[in-house]
Amino acid sequence: MMLSTPFTFSQSSLQDYNDCPRRFKLRYIERLMWPAVETEPTQDYERHQQEGSLFHRMVQQNIIGIPTEKLAVMAQSDNLSKWWDAYIQHAPNLDGYTLFAEYTLSAPLGDHRIVAKYDLIAIKPGEKAIIYDWKTYRKRPKNDYLAVRWQTRLYSALLERAGNHLNAGAPILPEQIEMVYWFANYPTEPARFSYSKAKSQRDWGLIAKTIAEIDAEKDFGMSEEERPCKFCAYRSYCDRGKKAGEWDEFNGEIEAEENFEIDFEQIGEIAF
Ligand code: SF4
Description:
seven-stranded mixed β-sheet, 9 helices, 21% strand, globular, binds iron/sulfur cluster
């Protein structure tokens, strides 16, 4: 077994394992950080990443009560002011909900643990629990693509299992959960995914199976296809091309790296 115990799994590490087991090993076991740029030109990629982080921060600040006019001064680039206008005009109406912004949930699973950091969880106790994730993708991904992403599966599953304390102590039923991706570039076309008992059973089965597979993994082989390599920081380790993919072709997600050094004392974790 190569994993330390407990090993903390997140949607990004599970997704990386899915896309390429070797990338999982390099990033989460060997912890090799960013040896190569992921796209060219680098500045465009980095600027978009910074703008994305700032946009998330502005929304979070607004949710905790800072007025929109005060935050508007932070929107100092074309993208940011466009996204901020879109947010002001089309942000979800969450009157009557209790809001938990930038909230982390975690739960143990066997020898390991799973964790998710939510942009926003909006709860009406006993009625509805909506997960929001703000996305600054340049192109709106298809719902079919999003439906099978680890983020969609893990966020709903974990809220159901570890979110009782946000729901006045009562269990959150799968049917009460909805996951919404809100796209700053497509503010009137959010992607919504309802949840159900059947989906929850399927997801927990898949989570347990994938974690068991990673736990038993010895090879962590390279992805068969070379498609994931084009925008991968580890190309030089794998001899899969020296040149980064073009920024114009990049449709993926760029968000600041998740911080895995989480203080578990601070997180609502349940034992089961
Ligand atoms: S370059 Fe390709 S094979 Fe190597 S870690 Fe990245 S995705 Fe996997």
